[in-house]
């Protein structure tokens, strides 16, 4: 543009021609500035798109990590349920031993010497104890199995959350590229 103004001056162009050259130069400078602003806008838009995509991935990872922690807690509780079932089984066995010992002592004290009612009472105590042990074991296994299944489902949900975060980030990037392509 400076060359055009110099040319107008050299050719003897008056102030009108020189002014027209300045007007053209100013317009051209304004056009270059607006191109620079558009380029800066594209960079800022791309940066925000990238940050938004990364935020989506980060958010999904945080949620997935929380779900995995929940799954670990469920697995821990499943083990606790099994241990509690064993503890209850030991208590039932102790009660059975105490009942049988009491029956034997009562039998000898009454002179029955391990026959009749003493044996029947002991057999009944054993049967009841076995029934209680079975219920306790089955209950503990059911609770532990339920917790383990819940932990597995929670882990699957954590994986799906990560995939969803990546898909969302991909959608954000694709939308940003689409906007960029439409502009120019």
Q: Could you characterize the architecture of this molecule?
A:
This protein starts with a helix and ends with a helix. Helix 1 (about 1-10) packs antiparallel against helix 2 and helix 2 runs antiparallel to helix 3. The chain folds into two domains: about 1-35; about 50-184. The model is unreliable at about 5-10 and about 15-30 (pLDDT under 50). It is built from three helices and no strands. With about 180 residues, the protein is mostly helical. The radius of gyration is 42 Å and the shape is rod-shaped. It is about 95% helix and about 0% strand.
Mean pLDDT across every amino acid position: 79
- SSE topology string: HHH
Number of helices: 3
Given as residue ranges, the uncertain stretches (5+ residues, pLDDT < 50) are 3-8, 16-28
What fraction of residues sit in β-strands? under 5%
Find the structural class using helix and strand composition: mainly alpha
Through-space gap between termini: 26 Å
Shape: rod-shaped
Gyration radius (Cα, Å) is: 42 Å
Number of β-strand runs:
0
Number of domains: 2
Q: What summary fits the major beta sheet? A: none
Helix proportion range: over 70%
């Amino acid at each position: 543009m400076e060359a055009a103004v110099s040319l107008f001056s050299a050719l003897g162009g008056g102030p009108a021609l020189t002014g027209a050259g300045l007007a053209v130069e100013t317009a051209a400078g304004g056009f270059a500035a607006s191109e620079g602003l558009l380029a800066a806008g594209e960079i800022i838009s791309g940066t925000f798109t990238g940050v938004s995509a990364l935020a989506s991935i980060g958010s999904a990872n945080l949620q997935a990590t929380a779900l995995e922690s929940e799954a670990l807690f469920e697995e821990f509780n499943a083990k606790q349920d099994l241990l509690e079932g064993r503890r209850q089984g030991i208590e039932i066995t102790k009660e059975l031993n105490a009942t049988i010992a009491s029956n034997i002592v009562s039998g000898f004290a009454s002179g029955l010497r391990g026959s009749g009612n003493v044996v029947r009472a002991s057999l009944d105590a054993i049967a009841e104890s076995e029934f209680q042990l079975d219920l306790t074991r089955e209950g503990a296994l059911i609770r532990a199995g339920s917790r383990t299944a819940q932990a597995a489902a929670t882990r699957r949900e954590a994986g799906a959350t990560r995939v969803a975060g990546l898909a969302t980030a991909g959608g954000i990037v694709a939308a940003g590229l689409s906007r960029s392509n439409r502009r120019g």
